[in-house]
Amino acid sequence: MPKDIRVKICGLTRAQDMEAAVSAGASFVGLVFFPKSPRHVEIATARKLALTVPPGVAKVALTVNAEDALLDAILGEVPLDILQLHGSESPERMAAVRSRSGLPVMKAVGVAEAADLAALDTYGRVADMLLVDAKPPKGAALPGGNGLAFDWRLLTGRRWPVPWMLAGGLEAGNVAEAIRLTGAPMVDVSSGVESAPGLKDAARIAAFVQAAQS
Ligand SMILES: O=C(O)c1ccccc1N[C@@H]1O[C@H](COP(=O)(O)O)[C@@H](O)[C@H]1O
């Protein structure tokens, strides 16, 4: 019987990719505002993409240690539902972003080993949502979107008082196993549904959503 797993497709840069994500049944779509990323979108592009998203699909803005000026510029133009903080934002900064934006905040936490799990407990007390992602390798240019998985067994028995998503190296071929091992109620993918960095593939998106929900 299909499970009620909700899927986020992140790093959408083109109208056809947004359409593919929505048609495939994504519950969340992500726009990346981080110039070092191949998935970065300018604010005007993000606005156009966001305006095509139907009600019921949550529009998520991904930022990395963004300052108020950038957040204000994004929020002034792009209709959004959730802010994803994917940098080293402290719990205090996160709370400030939430009250400035008036939006729920999802904090990404990188995991590579058991010692990294403490941060999830900390942010789980103050964030509206958690994103449990693979920790980037040392020296990586991007704090996420590296197509890298972590040992999902680290999450066995771990729960937090807020909704959470699993991310990091997911693709159609491994997402069902990742959900089985972690009990994740939601999953997030970027590079695993691309044909090239920043370019999504409609068939891979559809296969991912189907595998997550099968
Ligand atoms: O996708 C990016 O380019 C990106 C840049 C900076 C921070 C996070 C980014 N992506 C997020 O990383 C995870 C996992 O991505 P992947 O599936 O392993 O490629 C996902 O949450 C994206 O939202």
UniProtKB/TrEMBL annotation:
Residue intervals of the N-(5'phosphoribosyl) anthranilate isomerase (PRAI) domain: 7-211
Assigned keywords, A-Z: Amino-acid biosynthesis, Aromatic amino acid biosynthesis, Isomerase, Tryptophan biosynthesis
Any one GO molecular-function label of the UniProt entry: phosphoribosylanthranilate isomerase activity
UniProt entry tagged with the keyword Cytoplasm: no
Pathways per UniProt: Amino-acid biosynthesis; L-tryptophan biosynthesis; L-tryptophan from chorismate: step 3/5
Protein origin, superkingdom: Bacteria
EC supergroup of this enzyme: isomerase
Catalytic activities: N-(5-phospho-beta-D-ribosyl)anthranilate = 1-(2-carboxyphenylamino)-1-deoxy-D-ribulose 5-phosphate
CDD domains named among the record's database cross-references: PRAI
Cited Gene3D superfamilies: Aldolase class I (3.20.20.70)
Family that this chain belongs to: Belongs to the TrpF family.
Protein name: N-(5'-phosphoribosyl)anthranilate isomerase
